[in-house]
Structures are given as structure tokens and as C-alpha cells.
Design a protein that fits this description.
alpha/beta, Nucleotidyltransferase, domain 5, 6-stranded mixed beta sheet, 5-stranded mixed beta sheet, 15 helices, 39% helix
Length: 386
């Protein structure tokens, strides 16, 4: 089917693929999308996560990659993304629908947004779209971030456009909080022009990194926040973690593993605190994640918006200690995970890129300039033929 025929369909069936900064695996969704722009409507059909094995995860988490490794991982991840897409094609068969195209974010290996400190900038997502197209025989939309960056934006966050379509209400303002490797906030207002969105800072990245280092690789995350719950926060360590200059930057702003990864932010600090228990260290980095989110909310959101609900997605939504601490810090706001309203916490970003892919196919701009800093609204993504 050609692009024009897909555009003219009343409903399009789309596979969305996402590999996030936590490097856990590929999240894949199958959705039905009607329309484009403000009138777009989405129905969630299926979701599956294909986890990465430890060897691949460790390669993705490497502090440095050679050009050869980037080339090899680009095609290897293309195969993994294709595997996930094929699983969703099976789900489509079970639901007796035909998939029109695939939207694949890929995996970010470098993100260096425009900055007054440097004349150079760039972003790179790997997971070769040609491999996905070859194996699935479907059109693939990919490489969403570069057009926004070319227009002077940060290339992130891109999820706010989808958040507004999915979560807006005429009668209230809602905050969408995604706690993946990096945490980000979208303030979903009734009017699109009033949206605020930005990365608050580290999400799971410093919790998972601490667990991996202190357990010598035997654990990869703090399951349900149990270690953090048992531990006590180390005040001077918390002060160090929250002293990073990123937290004082005004939105629009975005960040990534390059800034808050283990090597850049955490390793020396952990090495100098060997006299503290594992639980106390995990409790402290967990508190840093929560406090950076809360501080960003109180500094940039609370003074300007009347918010009654926060909807949480990402892996951090399953950390009960994080969720409890958020609710304690913001007692007058209803905080709940997105599963309650029909979107799995692990699927939100994959759904968002399915929506962004739909807008690419339809020729509809889908960045949010006030969130990314871009000079104008632009059509995102590149299209690989089936």
C-alpha cells in the first residue's frame, strides 16, 4: 500500500517501538489511530516487552563505544526491533487487522542538544529501520529527533505532543510524569499553546547504576524499591547529587545518559562512600531522583499551573518507594500510574511514537516548540519504504 492510500484510510493500525535509556528491552505496541492533529483518536490493542539479555544490555550501557561497535549495534538492534514488530504483527493477525506501518524510535546512543557552551550539537538513535522494513515488509518511520534539532530545538522531549492528545481534559490540567532512565514532565493543559514539558533529570538511571555497581553486576535494579525502603538517606551524598548544574537550568531543557550516566555523575561519588551500606546508598540515589522531580515541579510547574492529577509511566512507576515518596511530597495531588486509564506504564512512550509516526505519514507537525525550543513546528521522522 502506498503512502497516499494509508493517509486516506479512516483508521490506521500502527506498531510503535521504543528502546529507552534504561536499556531494559524493546517495548512494542499495536494501536489503532483515527485522524491527525487535535482530532486524533487512539485505541490501545496490544503490548509486549522483549527484554535484552545481559550481554547486550551491558554493551548498550558502555560508557564509550567505538565507531565499529555503533555500526554493529545499529544492525543488531534493528534485528531486535524487527523481532518486536513481528510479535505485534502476530497480535494483529489474532485481532484480524492489517498493520499499515511501523514507528520505531530506536535507541539513543548520543544526545548533545544545542548549547551556548558549544557550536556543535547532534543526536543519534540506532536500530536500523532498513532491517525492520526488510524483515516485516512494512513501511517504517524512524529518526524522529533530528528534524526538531535541525530547527534549533533540543530534539527532546518529543512525547508531549502525544501526551496532549491522550491526556488532555477541557476541565483540568494534568501532569504526565515519565520515570524511565531519565525523568520527564509534560504539563497537559486544555490549550495546546500552554503546554510545558522538559526533562527533570535522572530517573531510574542512577538507581539502576548504583545497584549494578554495588552488587558487582549481580542485580540490575532495585525491585519494587525494597532496598531503598530499608535504607536511610545519606545527607551529604544527597546534597552532592542535587548540586548538579542541570537542575538550575530553565526549561526548555533535555538531558540523557551522557550527563547523568554512571561515569559522568555517579562512579566517583560511590567510590568515596564505601563505608555506607548498600541499602543506604540506594535509598539516597532514590531520594535524589524523587527530590529532583519534586523540586522541578515546585519550581517550574506549581507557580504557573493549577494541577490536580499526576499520571505516572515508565519503569519507575513500579518502584513503590518512589511512588510513596512522590505522594508524600505532593500530598494534595492525585498520583497514579497510567495503567488505571488503559495505557500500560511500560507502553506510554511506544504509544507516543506510534502517534508521532502517524503524524509523519499524514504530514502533520508534531514537535512542541515551546517544549523543545525549536524555531517552528516541523514534521518529524524519516520514512523507509516497505
Amino acid at each position: 500500500m502506498n503512502l497516499q492510500a494509508i493517509r486516506e484510510k479512516k483508521a490506521r493500525f500502527v506498531i510503535g517501538l521504543m528502546s529507552g535509556t534504561s536499556c531494559d528491552g524493546v517495548d512494542a505496541v499495536l494501536v489503532r489511530i483515527k485522524g491527525t492533529g487535535p482530532g486524533l483518536a487512539m485505541k490501545f490493542i496490544a503490548h509486549k516487552t522483549l527484554p535484552y539479555e545481559p550481554e547486550l544490555r551491558n554493551r548498550l550501557l558502555a560508557e564509550q563505544m567505538s565507531s565499529k561497535e555503533v555500526c554493529l549495534l545499529n544492525f543488531e538492534l534493528g534485528e531486535r526491533l524487527a523481532d518486536a514488530a513481528l510479535a505485534m504483527l502476530d497480535a494483529a493477525d489474532e485481532n484480524e487487522v492489517e498493520v499499515d506501518f511501523i514507528a520505531a524510535h530506536g535507541h539513543t546512543v548520543g544526545h548533545y542538544p544545542p548549547s551556548p557552551a558549544s557550536a556543535h550539537y547532534g543526536t543519534l538513535q540506532i536500530g536500523e529501520a532498513a532491517v525492520i522494513a526488510q524483515r516485516t515488509k512494512k513501511i517504517v518511520v524512524s529518526d524522529f529527533r533530528v528534524r526538531d534539532m535541525a530547527a534549533g530545538g533540543q530534539g527532546a522531549p518529543l512525547v508531549p505532543y502525544a501526551d496532549w492528545l491522550l491526556f488532555r481534559r477541557d476541565e483540568r490540567t494534568t501532569v504526565c510524569l515519565n520515570i524511565g532512565g531519565i525523568a520527564n514532565i509534560t504539563v497537559v493543559t486544555p490549550d495546546f499553546k500552554d503546554i510545558l514539558a522538559f526533562d527533570t533529570g535522572p530517573g531510574n538511571i542512577i538507581i539502576d547504576g548504583t545497584v549494578r555497581i554495588l552488587s558487582r553486576g549481580t542485580r540490575s535494579y532495585d525491585e519494587n524499591g525494597e532496598a531503598a525502603r530499608r535504607g536511610k538517606v545519606i545527607p551529604e551524598f544527597l546534597e552532592y547529587l542535587l548540586s548538579d548544574s542541570y537542575f538550575d537550568k530553565e526549561p526548555p531543557k533535555s538531558t540523557g545518559r551522557e550527563h547523568f550516566g554512571v561515569n559522568a555523575y555517579l562512579r566517583d561519588a560511590l567510590a568515596s562512600r564505601k563505608d555506607h551500606s548498600y541499602e543506604d546508598m540506594v535509598a539516597t540515589v532514590t531520594q535524589a531522583t524523587v527530590q529532583s522531580i519534586v523540586d522541578a515541579y515546585k519550581r517550574y510547574v506549581e507557580p504557573k499551573y493549577d494541577v490536580s492529577h499526576i499520571v505516572v509511566g515508565g519503569g519507575g512507576a513500579m518502584n513503590s518507594t518512589v511512588m510513596l515518596k512522590l505522594q508524600e511530597a505532593l500530598p494534595n495531588i492525585k498520583i497514579y500510574i497510567s495503567d488505571r486509564i488503559g495505557i500500560s506504564h511500560n507502553a506510554r512512550e511506544a504509544v507516543a511514537f506510534a502517534i508521532l509516526g502517524n503524524e509523519t505519514i499524514c504530514g502533520t507537525p508534531a514537535n512542541v516548540p515551546q517544549a523543545t525550543g525549536a524555531s517552528e513546528a516541523v514534521v518529524l521522522g524519516k520514512i523507509t519504504p516497505a
